[in-house]
Structure formats: C-alpha cells, structure tokens
Design a protein that fits this description.
globular, about 0% strand, mainly alpha, about 75% helix, Glycerol uptake facilitator protein, about 230 residues, single chain, 9 helices
Length: about 230
C-alpha cells in the first residue's frame, strides 16, 4: 500500500501513547494530589516525543478524532483516513495489551481497568459526552491552528503535547480524559465490564468535538482570507 509506512508509524505512535499514558494512570493512580498531574504530563509528553519521531512520516495524528478533523479539512483522503484509523485502533489495542502483560508480571493496576475511561464522575453519559466534546474541541482546534502555519512547524509537537496535558488536567477527574477513541478502545477491550459498555461515549464524544473544531476553524480561516 502506498502509505503503509505512515500507517505503521500511526500504529506505533498510538501504542506508545496508550502504554505511557494509561500505564502512568495504572501504576500511579489518578488522585488530584499527585498522580493526576503526572498522568496528564505522561499523555502530553508522549505526544511531544512521538511528534518529533513520526511527525514527518504520518503527521503524528495517533488519534482517530484528529484524523477525522484532517479528513473534514481535506488534508487527508478517505482512503488514508480509513488506514489511519485502523492503524490507530490496532495501536491502542497493542498498547493496552502490553499493559495487560505487565499486570501478569504482578504490577498493580490502581485504576482496576488499565486506565479505561468512565462516565460516573461526570454525572453519567450526558455529562461525559459533554466533557469529551468540549475537551476534544479545544485539543483539535489547537492542532488545526498550529499545523496550519508552516512557520510554527518546529514548535507544533510541543504545543500539541502541552495542550493534551492541559485538557487532561480538567478531564481526568471527570472521565479519565479520552479525546481519542483509540486510547479508549484498547484498554476497554481488555477491561471489559462497564468500561467496554461505555466506550461508545468515548468514541462519539471525541468525533463530535473534532468535527465542530474542523468546521469552526474552516469558517474562521475563510473569513480571514476573504
């Protein structure tokens, strides 16, 4: 396939994100006094690291919501969108599988579900959807903005990573923060139970948030260039 290297890069990048981000939640916990901020930084720094490794190969989306926004913005073909999403979901499953292997060696899982997302602390499904839409909107809007200007290319990975950490600070106590369907699908498949039953929230919410961000950014750019 023409863009197989990009798909492989997306798979690896997503696996790293899930292993490091969900893994930090698993071993540190997510209490606001300490683990909360450490987990937020782990997710953000995973983006920073992978952006400078695979950014030139695939753009380092490592998130179906980001790829969806790029597709809506006509920066990604339908074929590549499908290839990216498949690679990202597989990468999320690989990352979660590695975490499951860690628990097999006796490593404690303080989340009880490999860092899966949940709706309870957000007031149920409606609250969780609202949180994920808003946080993904902020995250994806930042990505669209920073990647639209070639002069910001060198700083893009850092800005995007810090923004991911930023949205996690608010989102972790509420939903565990998804803003990324692949990050949610992998752990939920291994955790099962309520994590798997609720995973659709963490697919739908980020996709809606990404679509809103793409539509708004397109509108803002069109007014600027008018």
């Amino acid at each position: 396939m023409k863009n197989m290297k990009a798909y492989i890069a997306e798979l690896i990048g997503t696996a790293i994100l899930v292993f490091m981000g969900c893994g930090s939640a698993m071993v540190l916990g997510c209490d606001v006094s300490g683990g909360h901020l450490a987990v937020a930084l782990a997710f953000g720094l995973s983006i920073v690291a992978t952006a400078y490794v695979i950014g030139g190969i695939s753009g380092c989306h490592i998130n179906p919501a980001v790829s969806f926004a790029m597709f809506l913005s006509k920066k990604l073909s339908a074929m590549d969108f499908g290839g990216y999403v498949i690679a990202q979901v597989v990468g999320g499953i690989v990352g979660a599988g590695l975490l499951r292997m860690l628990t097999g060696f006796g490593v404690a899982d303080l989340t009880g579900a490999l860092g899966s997302n949940g709706v309870a602390n957000a007031g149920g499904i409606g609250g969780a959807l609202f949180v994920e839409i808003i946080l993904t909107f902020i995250f994806v809007l930042t990505i669209l903005g920073v990647t639209s200007d070639d002069s910001k290319g060198a700083q893009a990975g850092l800005v995007i990573g810090l923004t991911l950490a930023f949205v996690h600070i608010v989102g972790i106590p509420l939903t565990g923060t998804s803003v990324n369907p692949a990050r949610s699908i992998g752990p939920a498949l291994f955790a099962g139970g309520s994590a798997l039953a609720e995973v659709w929230v963490f697919i739908a919410g980020p996709l809606v948030g990404a679509a809103l961000a793409a539509l708004l950014f397109s509108y803002l750019k069109s007014k600027k260039n008018a």
